[in-house]
Write a structure and sequence with these properties.
Elements lengths: L13 H4 L3 H4 L4 H11 L4 E5 L12 E5 L3 H4 L26 E5 L8 H11 L4 E6 L14 H10 L3 H8 L2 E6 L2 E2 L20 H5 L9 H16 L2 H6 L7 E2 L3 E7 L1
Parallel strand pairs: 1-2, 1-3, 3-4
Antiparallel strand pairs: 4-8, 5-8, 6-7
Length: 257
């Protein structure tokens, strides 16, 4: 498996895009509640592709795995240090954990099937994944202005059927509504706040923008800025500014033995 100088093991180099990530990608309380409920009574939890520690329950014994040094360095001081490893090669014994979780992570694994097999191997209870349904990613209005970015995002996410098959066992998939005030700044979090995506930091915290060239990204941003300034965005989508939640591509996948 090829890793960058930063250690990133997937398709995104967080040594380049990970700086400042935690200013824009904070745990959304409603998602946090859903994850905690899915983890059930598990006391020991493995967090794979843990990043800066979003969604790690503070009242459980969590072991975090994160290959990127940049992301490990952004973990808060009250969280345990993350293990430098990748999903495909977990350095733990069989059935070592009560449960496992991965949030906005599986689409960046180099080998999804191998990674999920490893997660299953070391987990005796539920596996909880927060991910996106690629068939719905391009439904967001952003595809009108940043078509290449959203097409890239849709290609990166594995299908729910593929995830389900790789996990095996009893698997349920639940769509999670995204609140208007969502603080976890992935693209759909800004469904009613388009101005936020004019912020370079907000775009940098969405790795899909790193997969298009600078000219394409600039053209997309200019198109969105123009639409906001001339009122055409509001003419088409202004109702979203008062819509309390949005049902987009976000899903919670829960696999039980």
């Amino acid at each position: 498996m090829t890793r960058t100088a930063d250690g990133s093991a997937g398709d995104a180099d967080y040594g380049t895009i990970g700086d400042g990530y935690t200013r824009y990608r904070r745990p959304e309380p409603s998602f946090e509640r859903a994850i905690r409920a899915a983890l059930g009574q598990a006391r020991t939890v493995l967090n794979v592709g843990a990043g800066a520690g979003s969604y790690e329950p503070r009242d459980r014994e969590v072991t975090a795995v994160e290959p990127s040094a940049t992301m490990r360095a952004q973990r808060p001081g009250d969280l345990p240090e993350a293990v430098d490893a990748s999903a495909e090669d977990l350095p733990f014994a069989d059935d070592a954990f009560d449960a496992a979780m991965a949030t906005f992570s599986v689409h960046q694994w180099a080998d999804l099937e191998r990674g999920l097999a490893e997660v299953r191997r070391v987990t005796r209870g539920p596996v909880v994944l927060l991910t996106c349904d690629p068939t719905r990613v391009e439904d967001l209005w952003l595809a009108e202005y940043a078509a290449e970015v959203m097409a890239t995002e849709a290609r990166r996410y594995p299908s729910l059927d593929r995830i389900t098959a790789a996990l095996g066992g009893d698997v349920t998939t639940t769509r999670l509504p995204i609140p208007f005030t969502c603080v976890d700044g992935f693209s759909e979090a800004y469904y009613g706040r388009p101005e936020r995506l004019l912020d370079p930091g907000a775009r940098k915290a969405n790795s899909a923008w790193a997969f298009v060239d600078e000219m394409t990204a600039a053209r997309s941003v200019n198109a969105l800025r123009t639409a906001i300034e001339d009122g055409s965005w509001d003419a088409r989508h202004g109702r979203l500014r008062v819509q309390p939640s949005y049902e987009g591509s976000l899903v919670l996948v829960v696999a039980r033995p």
